[in-house]
């Protein structure tokens, strides 16, 4: 797995962080379609819930990272690492990870 530092070196540090919620990719129907390849029951509501939880639980200590900075494996690792710090419930963790994973695969980034 590439580390985030390797990623940030290749994409440029400026695009790594989002100032706050409004800049964060908003799920659309195409994201649901793509996400259903991995999780057939995925809904737009679930992705939106994940986005809201990501903003609510992960923006307290640092700016939000764009979903495109990591791949699925990277996010799985990172969210489990941040779980205790963020007091995540299982539902939060699942929703946040689903949102980040699906959005990280958006063609052209976000
Ligand atoms: C209580 C504070 C806190 C909360 C809440 C928190 N983080 Fe972090 N996060 C940190 C700190 C401190 C770092 C700096 C690196 C480290 O200590 O691991 C960090 C670093 C990161 C990084 C970058 C790691 C790197 O390699 O540079 C990512 C991505 C990240 N956090 C994601 C999240 C996500 C996703 C959530 C919500 C589930 C979250 N964080 C919630 C404190 C927090």
How would you describe the overall organization of this protein?
The protein has a domain at 41-110. It has helices spanning 4-11, 29-35, 44-58, 72-86, 90-104; strands at residues 17-18, 64-65. Residues 8-14 have low confidence and may be disordered. With 110 residues, it is mainly alpha-helical. It starts with a helix and ends in a 6-residue tail after the last helix. The radius of gyration is 13 Å and the shape is globular. The chain has a two-stranded antiparallel ribbon. Helix content is 55%, strand content 4%. Heme C is lined by residues 4, 57-58, 60-62, 65, 78-79, 82, 85-86, 88, 96.
Quickly describe the structure.
The protein is mainly alpha-helical.
The tally of helices reads 5
Q: Compute the number of strand runs.
A: 2
Task: State the secondary-structure class.
Answer: mainly alpha
Ligand inventory reads: heme C
Largest sheet: 2 strands, antiparallel
Topology:
Blueprint: H1 4-11, E1 17-18, H2 29-35, H3 44-58, E2 64-65, H4 72-86, H5 90-104
